[in-house]
């Protein structure tokens, strides 16, 4: 497939994210006073404790089975590698540019934790829906893409973060931090893998199908809500963009240059020795996991608990602005690489 056509296919999902993010920024302006501090914090709370676990639970329950877990065993390892390598690069960054102590946890978290939640769930199915998508039949591509993206959410990501968020960890209740999405992932996996629960909740005409449908409805609100909050939180970063310039540049280099390059070596090496099954869409998502901007949860957590909120907004503004270009380019290259 021509490189230019792949570029257009990769661009459309990123544009969708940008449009919703821009709407969030627009709604947070003083002139409209819709997503200001109080409303934004309340929505953050709902996203963190309700929408996110519902989204994780419903996505995994519908698309993950015992067979798919066996087939896709490398993905949790791949996610773990993104955190370990990102954390190592973040530690080097902290030492190299001498990041202030109160920002070290935030810097490490932004380098280690990519947006493995809503971005893959938006980008991968959206790529499948594009005219002339390179991954074959639309329905099969969409179903498999949703399964792959959902599985990437199942890994208990926030634990790779816990030791790194030094300052945040001193100020918040870790039980509250880890409970919602982790529990949602566990419940979703149990429902998807255990046949009796799957028959009760998931299959056509399931006895308790209405319960699963309700969870899906709640979870569906999570993606637009999280993306709107990214836009609302980015506005705060405009006020202090120049204050953390070395740190911002360092995080951008780590997340958008070093990690994707390292990821290509890891994934292609795993393919070469037969650890990854030959599905281009699956390989594409594995590569994409190394090229994502920092996790939205970083912004959610800092606003929810009031720790390093301003600095996080600055970092999010810079990295997500850069991601609009880097993610499109890397997605295009990754599709070309796996086809």
UniProtKB/TrEMBL annotation:
UniProt GO BP: auxin-activated signaling pathway; endoplasmic reticulum to cytosol auxin transport
Keyword hit for Transit peptide: no
One Pfam family hit: Mem_trans
Coiled coil regions in record: none
GO cellular component: endoplasmic reticulum membrane
Keyword Protein biosynthesis attributed: no
UniProt membrane topology term: Multi-pass membrane protein
Database matches in InterPro entries: Mem_transp_PIN-like, PILS1/3/4/5/7
Subcellular location: Endoplasmic reticulum membrane
Keywords: Auxin signaling pathway, Endoplasmic reticulum, Membrane, Transmembrane, Transmembrane helix, Transport
Record field: transmembrane: 6-29, 41-61, 73-94, 176-197, 217-235, 247-275, 281-305, 317-338
Cited function: Involved in cellular auxin homeostasis by regulating auxin metabolism. Regulates intracellular auxin accumulation at the endoplasmic reticulum and thus auxin availability for nuclear auxin signaling.
Listed PANTHER family: AUXIN EFFLUX CARRIER FAMILY PROTEIN, PTHR31651
Protein family membership: Belongs to the auxin efflux carrier (TC 2.A.69.2) family.
Official protein name in the record: Protein PIN-LIKES 1-like isoform X3
């Amino acid at each position: 497939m021509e490189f230019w056509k792949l570029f257009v296919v990769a661009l459309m999902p990123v544009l969708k994210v940008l449009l919703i993010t821009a709407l969030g920024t627009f709604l947070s302006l003083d002139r409209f006073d819709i997503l200001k501090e109080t409303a934004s914090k309340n929505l953050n709370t709902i996203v963190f404790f309700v929408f996110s676990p519902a989204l994780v639970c419903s996505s995994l329950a519908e698309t993950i089975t015992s067979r798919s877990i066996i087939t896709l065993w490398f993905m949790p390892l791949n996610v773990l590698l993104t955190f370990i390598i990102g954390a190592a690069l973040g530690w080097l960054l902290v030492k190299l540019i001498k990041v202030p102590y109160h920002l070290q946890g935030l810097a490490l978290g932004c380098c280690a934790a990519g947006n493995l939640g809503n971005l893959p769930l938006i980008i991968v199915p959206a790529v499948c829906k594009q005219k002339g998508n390179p991954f074959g039949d639309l329905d099969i591509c969409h179903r498999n893409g949703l399964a792959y993206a959902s599985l990437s959410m199942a890994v208990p990501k926030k634990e790779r973060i816990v030791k790194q968020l030094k300052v945040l960890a001193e100020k918040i209740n870790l039980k509250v931090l880890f409970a919602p999405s982790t529990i949602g992932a566990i419940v979703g996996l149990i429902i998807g893998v255990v046949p009796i629960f799957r028959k009760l909740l998931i299959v056509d005409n399931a006895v308790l199908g209405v319960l699963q449908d309700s969870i899906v409805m709640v979870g569906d609100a999570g993606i637009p809500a999280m993306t709107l909050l990214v836009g609302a939180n980015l506005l705060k970063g405009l006020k202090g963009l120049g204050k953390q310039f070395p740190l911002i540049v360092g995080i951008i280099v780590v997340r958008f240059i070093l990690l994707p390059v390292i990821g290509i070596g890891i994934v292609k090496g795993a393919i070469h020795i037969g650890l990854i099954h030959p599905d281009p869409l699956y390989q594409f998502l594995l590569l994409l996991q190394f090229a994502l901007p920092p996790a939205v949860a970083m912004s959610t957590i800092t606003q929810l608990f009031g720790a390093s909120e301003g600095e996080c907004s600055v970092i999010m503004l810079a990295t997500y602005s850069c991601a609009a270009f880097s993610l499109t380019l890397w997605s295009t290259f990754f599709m070309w690489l796996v086809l």
